[in-house]
Write a structure and sequence with these properties.
The chain is α/β, with parallel strands linked by helices. The protein contains 2 helices and 8 strands; from the N terminus they run βββαβββαββ. It is found in: Cytoplasm.
């Protein structure tokens, strides 16, 4: 499982002409689920999302606080294209989990984040829909977490 985390001042997802998810200060998270991902991969990503320190403390010391400590939002967006491999100039997505299983894992990820953090702080887009994502990045700060590469995360 891969997660691309971006620190944001605000963000929203629009699908079929309506805003389906939005958050204020916090993080935008693109989530790619591979066909080999397990519950352990998901749990690893959850720990990282809730624990990653990408905000300053009150004294201005950077990299001190996590999303829970700033009472921030998490905008969680399914992104199967993170599982791509390039075949020449064309992306191939055969490493992505099939949509039915990926939806189940994505929903479990969302529900667990809401349970371990706060239901009203975790918003999502629409799974397997065309979406427009609008966000105001803060920094910018962008991190990539890969559950298969734990030694470098």
């Amino acid at each position: 499982m891969k997660a691309v985390i971006q620190r944001i001042l605000r963000g929203s997802v629009t699908s079929e002409g309506a805003v389906v998810g939005s958050v204020e200060k916090g993080m935008s998270v693109l989530v790619g689920i591979s066909r080999e991902d397990t519950k352990e991969d998901m749990e690893y990503i959850i720990r990282k999302l809730l624990g990653v320190r990408i905000w300053a403390d009150e004294a201005g010391k950077m990299w001190s606080k996590n999303v829970k400590e700033i009472d921030g939002g998490i905008l969680l967006i399914s992104q199967f294209t993170l599982m791509h491999v390039m075949k020449g100039n064309k992306p191939d997505f055969h490493h992505a989990m099939n949509p039915e299983a990926a939806l189940e894992m994505f929903n479990t990820l969302r529900d667990t984040l809401r349970k371990e953090y706060a239901e009203d702080k975790v918003a999502t887009g629409h799974f397997q829909h065309y979406m427009n994502i609008e966000q105001v990045m803060d920094g910018p700060v962008t991190l990539v977490i890969d559950s298969k590469d734990k030694k470098n995360n």
